Amino acid sequence: MIDFATAQAQLAQSVRPLPAIPIGVRQAVGRRLASDVRAACDVPPFDKSMMDGYAVSHRSLATSGGRLKLAGKIVAGQMPTRPLEPGQAIVVMTGAPVPTGADAVVMLEHVHTDGDSDHIHVSAQEVRTGQHILPAGQIFSAGQVVVPAGRLITPQSVGLLLETGVPNVTVYPLPRVAVLTTGSELCPAESEPGPGQIRNTNGPLLVSLLSQYAQVLDLGIARDQRDELTELLRRGLDADMLVVTGGVSTGEFDLVPGVLDRLGVTPVFHKVALKPGKPIWFGVAEGREPRCLVFGLPGNPVSSLACCVLFVFQALRYLAGGDRIPYRRARLTTDHLIRGDRPTFWPAAAEDAGEHAMVRPLTWLGSADQRCLAETNCLAYFPRGDQTYGAGESIEVVPLSVW
Ligand code: AMP
Ligand code: MG
Fold first, then answer.
1. What value does the mean pLDDT of the chain take?
2. Please, what sign has the CA dihedral across residues 227, 290, 206, 211?
3. pLDDT (tens digit, 9 = 90+) per residue, 353-394?
4. Burial class (CB in 10 A: 0-12, 13-18, 19+), 323
5. Ligand 2 ion: Cβ-proximal residues, 5 Å cutoff
6. How far apart are CA 169 and CA 27, in angstroms?
7. CB 82, CB 100: distance < 8 Å
8. How far is CA 340 from CA 98, 297, 319, 382, in A?
9. How far apart are CA 125 and CA 115, in angstroms?
10. What pLDDT score does 378 carry?
11. Is the pTM of this model over 0.85?
12. Residue 206, helix vs strand vs coil
């Protein structure tokens, strides 16, 4: 058995980012950028009027005593056909390019016409050079970084990237993750268990957790039987990652490590000092394309969840070029007694309360008790050793997410 920090270090050493791929910006939401995105054009592409009004020249206003001759109209979507001459004003609509020679836009509301349809009157004092004009390239100039490498593409960055003339980006691909549930006692969760059977809840739990970040292939349920396990595990090894639940402890029917060994998967670690999740198994199938990361998670539901969050989520983050998942800090809402020789990741509910995040350890009877999972949104970390933590004490919490 190794300690948690050693297991994390070995995991970090074993996972390499997936080769990055080009993808359409609209399809890239939720993916991490593998390289900087630079603007392909100036934004805005031309000096742009931000108001409906008149394009004028500040200097010419002063010399003409504020009386300007109307010399045409530019609507959004058109380019000016001639420059603004001294003594002239040109009508511009919001979003229209401002003609050369103009250095300000005066709002319709700030102009007097005196019933004269050919001329406008504008007071030079009311006009500031540059007003209501967004100069070409002010938001981005071509070549500037729009979104740096490592960022997640969000819905709100889609419009931005497209505005800068970038239809495709380079991202880490969605990993392909196979999930195999093992256990002769399991029946499909939607059917009625026969005598001695229980519903397979880990499979659906893991598929749900992983579908947030991966393309998941559900391989279903394998009985604790060598041939059946061999067949399904072999299929799972074609993915970037194979997540197995059950059958990794030391009982007579915990056949998964042995079968993986025979399939040529190199073990990295088996059994980690933590609670829940001690039996966890991790190995890598090398010499194949893609190389496959294999996780054997213990069958008890809360162990399965905790190991998925602590190891599998971390690996998903590394596959996308990421770093360690940051654990947050939060203050305990109540006293909490911890006993044991292993660090504990206790199901808990964290919430922001003013300046500090607060965390409430939930009532939890152990790895088989998933009743608390309806409220769980993090795992509260307690180092090994018997200790009572006091209400208000600051502890580390692990979010149930990759990002
Ligand atoms: P194992 O790690 O295979 O020894 O499983 C430990 C215990 O977890 C079993 O005795 C079952 O009660 C439970 N268990 C295993 N697999 C599942 C599953 N897929 N869904 C729900 N409970 C499970
Ligand atoms: Mg089992």
1. 97
2. negative
3. 888 899 999 999 999 999 999 999 999 999 999 999 999 999
4. exposed
5. 183, 246-247, 299
6. 10
7. no
8. 73, 21, 33, 10
9. 22
10. 98
11. yes
12. helix
Q: What are the φ/ψ torsions at residue 83 (nearest 5 degrees)?
A: -75, 165
What is the phi-psi region of residue 354: left when phi exceeds 0, alpha when psi lies from -120 to 50, beta otherwise? left
- Other CB atoms within a 10 A radius of the CB of residue 370 amount to 19
Cross-strand partners of 221: 181
Which pLDDT belongs to residue 62? Answer: 87
d(CA 17, CA 210): 17
> 178 CA to middle of ligand 2, Å?
18
Nearest to 83 by CA among 59, 55, 63: 55
Residue 266: which H helix or E strand, with range?
A: strand 266-270
First to last CA, the chain: 29
For strand 145-147 and strand 37-38, is the pairing parallel, antiparallel, or unpaired? antiparallel
Question: Where does 4-139 show beta strands of DSSP type E?
Answer: 21-24, 37-38, 48-49, 53-56, 67-74, 88-92, 104-107, 119-121, 133-134
Collect the ranges in the chain with pLDDT lower than 70.
Answer: none
**CA–CA separation, 132 and 305 (whole Å):** 55
Q: How far apart are CA 357 and CA 56, in angstroms?
A: 55
| Integer Cα distance of 157 and 162 in angstroms | 9
Give 9 Cα–ligand 1 centroid separation in angstroms: 28
| DSSP class of 309 | I
Amino acid making up residue 334: T
Q: Which residue has the tokens 């690996």?
A: 315
Q: Which two tokens stand for residue 372?
A: 């608390």
Three-state DSSP at 270 gives: strand
Region for 19 from its dihedrals, namely left if φ exceeds 0, alpha if ψ lies in -120 to 50, beta otherwise = beta
Pocket test for ligand 1, best of 197, 198, 270 (most atoms within 8 A of CB): 198
pLDDT of residue 115: 80
Q: Say if ligand 1 is within 6 A of residue 277 CB.
A: no
In this prediction, residue 282 carries a pLDDT of 98
From the CA of 1, how far away is ligand 1's center (Å)? 21
